[in-house]
Recover the amino acids of this structure.
């Protein structure tokens, strides 16, 4: 078995990739900490530091459980909280009984806090940890060393905090870039299957109904041909703004192709989605784009049905959109609802 490949190695979308990054960090940190700390259990036992040896054993047991949970269940054992808590307590207590030999462990412990905890919790935790270390250092070491320890430990935390903060910012920015379309700011296809599957699950489990609306600009190619691609881009941007202005916060707007947009409308039945689709086509055709460019769009509406997969749901909507185009464009076509399952007659 390869210990160094975590279950998240193959993430299927950007959000999962970020979650996978955090899991791998936690996973690897626990492995290295386990390897480093396990021999100390025996060393401290031999030095008759039974309490410290016991706490280190607890630390290693927690590391084994975290690794096993991540590896086999894909979840965090006790949310990964015990590592920072036990590491800080062990380092403080070891400094108290072992002096400098214990102090050295405070540095990796203070850095690990920022890799394992959310940033705010790590800051609070590190302030408490530095306070406890300062107290122990004031009892064990000369004044000059006390100040050296406080400043060097504080600086380690500051470096780790800056790094963790920047990595968090980078993760958020990369997720945004990977999940949205740069031209219109709409969600892109990377999230589509996950979002639709979520609504299918809500339908299957709680009978909560969502609908899908596809909107495709009519004769968009001729806009590009006549006015140029930059003008086409401005039409697409304006189109996304108009759609967003009419939608609720809970609705999700995707750009799934060149001039094709998809709306996922939670808690919305087909007839309400149909009304919204008509309103959206009106907002597109009512006002000219650019200076005086009249544009129309075609749309289709499909409510999620029992037994749907995301692709069958999308295919039905796609087929209806094709019909709207074939029927002359500038109109909404609804996917016919499946008849409700007839109840099986009960025999006396
Ligand atoms: N400006 C611009 N054009 C794009 C973009 N993505 C795709 N397109 C163009 O969109 C056009 C789509 O053409 P078609 O698929 O024939 O669709 P259409 O002309 O709208 O015709 P119907 O949909 O049948 O009404 C093509 O010319 C693509 O080059 C984009 O990001 N910006």
């Amino acid at each position: 078995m390869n210990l160094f490949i975590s279950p998240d190695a193959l993430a299927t979308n950007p959000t999962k990739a970020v979650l996978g990054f955090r899991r791998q960090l936690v996973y690897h940190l626990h492995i290295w900490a386990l390897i480093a700390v396990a021999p100390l259990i025996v060393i401290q036992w031999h030095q008759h530091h039974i309490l410290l040896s016991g706490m280190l054993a607890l630390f290693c047991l927690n590391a084994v459980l975290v690794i096993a949970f991540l590896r086999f269940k894909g979840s965090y054992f006790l949310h990964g909280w015990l590592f920072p808590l036990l590491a800080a307590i062990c380092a403080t207590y070891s400094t108290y009984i072992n002096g400098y030999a214990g102090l050295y462990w405070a540095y990796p412990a203070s850095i690990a806090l920022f890799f394992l905890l959310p940033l705010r919790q790590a800051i609070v935790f590190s302030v408490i940890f530095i306070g406890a270390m300062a107290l122990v250092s004031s009892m064990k070491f000369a004044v000059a060393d006390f100040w050296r320890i406080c400043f060097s430990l504080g600086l380690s935390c500051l470096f780790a905090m800056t790094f963790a903060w920047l990595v968090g910012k980078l993760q958020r920015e990369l997720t945004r870039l990977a999940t949205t379309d740069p031209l219109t700011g709409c969600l892109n296809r990377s999230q589509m299957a996950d979002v639709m599957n979520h609504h299918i699950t809500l339908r299957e489990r709680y009978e909560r109904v969502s609908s899908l609306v596809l909107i495709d600009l009519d004769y968009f190619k001729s806009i590009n041909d006549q006015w140029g691609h930059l003008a086409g881009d401005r039409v697409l941007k304006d189109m996304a703004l108009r759609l967003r202005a009419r939608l609720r916060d809970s609705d999700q707007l995707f750009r799934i192709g060149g001039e094709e947009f998809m709306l996922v409308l939670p808690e919305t039945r087909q007839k309400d989605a149909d009304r919204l689709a008509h309103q959206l086509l009106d907002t597109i055709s009512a006002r000219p784009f650019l200076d005086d460019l009249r544009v129309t769009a075609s749309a289709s509406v499909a409510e999620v049905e029992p037994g749907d997969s995301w692709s069958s749901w999308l295919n039905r909507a796609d087929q209806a959109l094709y019909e709207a185009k074939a029927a002359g464009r500038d109109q909404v076509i609804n996917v016919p609802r499946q008849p409700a399952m007839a109840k099986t007659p009960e025999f006396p």
